[in-house]
Design a protein that fits this description.
three-stranded mixed beta sheet, DgoD-like, lyase, six-stranded parallel beta sheet, Mandelate_racemase_C
Length: 376
């Protein structure tokens, strides 16, 4: 299904008993690669499997391919694994979180993203932030740094700080502000920007340096006074190992749709808990993956807060699979079952076909989230 800046891939898994499970993933600029992966993986690993045996299914899909698990493979595994949990919940007439250990909280804290698609000025960011708060959110995230890479010139540093200052003024002292850095900076710039932003009391800085170099991340973590979050581009528990051993982050952000699904992400969260690290799952997907994230949040003790884009997206995004609770006073209610609690509306999906788009976080005006079409 197409949107202004992202294509959402929904996966339906059919059983011989007539139960249909649904999963989802947003493959930024790699949708064809995912579809190609499924052409070979589905007949060789998935067809004929018992949907209750997700541990075995994920193990076979990772091991029997021989290739090292990457973004595409893990996304393909994740969407099918999520659909299997949906099947299990429907078969047992229970919400998925009840099958993953049961609820440890009665509501789920949310933060808004995708809300600042306006002119990059303090006045426009101030007005947009006010709209977020008026919508009921008590936390929001922004990347104020334009298309910066490695470093910023003096004027851009000042402008970025002014944008955060405007958002803090609009949101007030009680709303949490989270700073996204999108892996833009070298350690020196990340440290400098974090220090300049300290007066506005951000709840974290996210991906301050590119994700490939955890030693550089540790350098930042040791020299800033703001919590450091990362993990959306880490795709297996094996890759999280080094992050934990280095104690290079305070909050991890695995994406359920890139990390092997619900059970794999819950394992990573449990491992993080041993290091007193919190989990704030990355989520830029539509309603199905949002539902999966809410079920994980409901049953994960070291959960912190859930990212949510879809209150600031086109109406058809939420309409594609209705059933999720709305954000009220900063929180989602626990999801309702059975399964994930949402049902795919194929008519909505088909009315908004996939678009040939390319999204680039290092392009001018990327924050408006209007991707280029057919490379133009």
């Amino acid at each position: 299904m197409g949107t202004a800046w992202r294509n959402l891939t929904f996966v339906q898994v059919f059983t011989d008993e007539g139960i249909i499970g649904v999963g989802e993933v947003r493959m930024l600029n790699h949708t064809d690669a995912l579809l190609g992966y499924y052409q070979e993986a589905v007949p060789n690993h998935v067809l004929g499997s018992d949907p209750f045996n997700v541990e075995d299914l994920v193990r076979r899909m990772m091991r029997n391919d021989y290739a090292r698990p990457d973004y595409v493979m893990m996304a393909g595994i994740s969407a099918i694994e999520i659909a299997c949990w949906d099947i299990m919940g429907k078969a047992l007439n229970l919400p998925v979180y009840r099958l993953l250990g049961g609820a440890v909280r009665d509501k789920i804290k949310a933060y808004a993203n995708g809300w600042y698609t306006v002119e990059r000025t303090p006045a426009e960011f101030h007005a947009a932030a006010r709209r977020v708060v008026e919508k009921g959110y008590r936390a929001l995230k922004l990347d104020p740094f334009g298309h910066g890479f490695y470093e910023l010139d003096r004027a851009e540093k000042i402008r970025s700080v002014e944008l955060v200052e405007a958002v803090r003024d609009a949101a007030g002292p009680d709303v949490e502000i989270l700073i996204e850095m999108h892996g833009r900076f070298n350690p020196a710039t990340a440290i400098e920007m974090a220090r300049l932003l300290e007066p506005y009391q951000p709840g974290w800085i996210e991906e301050p340096v590119p994700p490939e170099n955890l030693a550089a991340l540790k350098k930042v973590t040791e020299k800033v006074n703001i919590p450091v979050a990362t993990g959306e581009r880490i795709h297996t528990r094996y890759d999280f190992r080094e992050l934990f051993e280095l104690q290079a982050a305070d909050i991890i952000q695995p994406d359920i749709t890139y990390c092997g699904g619900l059970l794999e992400t819950k394992k990573v969260a449990a491992w993080a808990d041993a290091y007193y690290v919190l989990i704030a799952p990355h989520n830029v997907c539509g309603p199905v993956a949002t539902a999966a994230a809410l079920h994980l949040a409901a049953c994960t003790p070291n959960f912190k807060i859930q990212e949510h884009f879809n209150d600031f997206a086109e109406d058809h995004v939420k309409a594609a699979a209705p059933g999720n609770p709305e954000v009220v006073d900063g929180y989602f209610a626990l999801p309702k079952g059975p399964g994930l609690g949402v049902e795919l509306d194929l008519d909505v999906v088909q009315a908004h076909p996939r678009r040939r788009i390319f999204f680039n976080l290092f392009a001018e005006e990327w924050h408006r989230r209007q991707a280029t079409v057919d490379g133009a």
